Amino acid sequence: MKKYIISIAVFFVCLSAGAAITEKYVSSSANEGTSDGTSGAPYSFAEMVTEINAGSAAGNRYNIKDDGTYTLGATVNLTAGGTQTAPVILRGYTTTITDGYLGRSPENGVLVTTNMPLIEFSSTSFNLTMTGDYIVFENLQLSASTSGTAWNSDTGCVFLNCKISSSSTNSAGVALSVGNRSSAINCDVFMTGASSGTAAIIASTTMSRIIGCRVNVTSTAAWTIRLTGATVVVDNMLIGGAGLRLNSASAVPFIYGNTIVNSSTDAISMVTTMDGPQFIMNNHITDNAGDGIDMFGTGNSGVILWNRLRDNGTSIANGNDWQTVLALGQVDDGTTGDTSTDYVDYGAGDYRLKATAPGTSAGFPTQRTIGAFQLNQEGSVGGSSETSHTFVK
Length: 393
Known about the structure:
Elements: H1 2-13, E1 22-26, H2 45-53, E2 60-65, E3 70-72, E4 76-78, E5 88-93, E6 118-121, E7 128-130, E8 135-138, E9 141-144, E10 149-152, E11 158-160, E12 163-166, E13 174-178, E14 183-185, E15 188-191, E16 199-203, E17 208-211, E18 214-217, E19 223-227, E20 231-234, E21 237-240, E22 244-246, E23 254-256, E24 259-261, E25 268-270, E26 278-281, E27 284-286, E28 293-294, E29 302-305, E30 308-310, E31 316-317, H3 321-325, E32 331-334, H4 339-342, E33 343-345, E34 350-353
Parallel strand pairs: 1-2, 2-5, 3-6, 4-7, 5-8, 6-9, 7-10, 8-11, 9-12, 10-13, 11-14, 12-15, 13-16, 14-17, 15-18, 16-19, 17-20, 18-21, 19-22, 20-23, 21-24, 22-25, 23-26, 24-27, 25-28, 26-29, 27-30, 28-31, 30-32
Antiparallel strand pairs: 33-34
């Protein structure tokens, strides 16, 4: 699964195929005023922003060196960006410009951030907004405590291999807003302190993509993901918070291969009569205080197949004939088993499945393991054999 996630990530980053990339450099110790963006005279972060906003940065890749924290003392608005064929790329590194991404930890699946520079805001009044299109953030740590949205993207933007954190205590706090036709891919998103109605990730427009992310919300009131448009939600690990929320009638997503665990309420919830069928398949939904899937009312339709549902308040609530007719491949739908049935180390926050878990090799397509961030379970069928716990990068 992880191999295909990385393939998707590479596809988005390679939007510039056919156009030359111009390498530029950024350092926290740059000498402002004498910089030209070359490796020998790197820009400061502020100089990079100025050049991007001048509207001439399409096709530039700004390699941001991990040589000190980039503390931003004001809101940053990237008012210009790139194009579909020549994006603007901001990429973190430490020694060589390709060493920023070191994969995920084999112990618990979190991103290894050793070589990723930290970009943070110094006040709750500041955030980053992109009104420019086609901007890529890659291999970066992004941190803020703003009372609003910390990192806000526009059309065609991508967050790839980033750790995004929000420590906001405000009722409007959001870690990441994924804009129109934008993507969050293989990111870790952490959020604390926000209240009801907020979310770690908000996808509020058409055809955004949230793929391969690990989203951890410590507040019991804030959602992990809130959707108001047609969004692809694939292979994400959603931990805590108030679950995944379909927040409008037009939120008709593709929800496939996610693990949703420890929500304070419903794991997946709807709020109104939806415009079309909800596609909910191959998801591992356990240990949530509310319903596994709340259809809101019998007027909603849903294609709900090959999910693992255990120890939720109710497995599927307010369903209808769709649920009955299409109830294929559900694995131990009910309250059977405990945390050790499924996860490598539930107490340590490692929610990847053991090779002996009921959801291992029990999904669709045939023998696809249910849930996200799985181990190397090659040769394990139906949870019948123990195999290596090597993380599949």
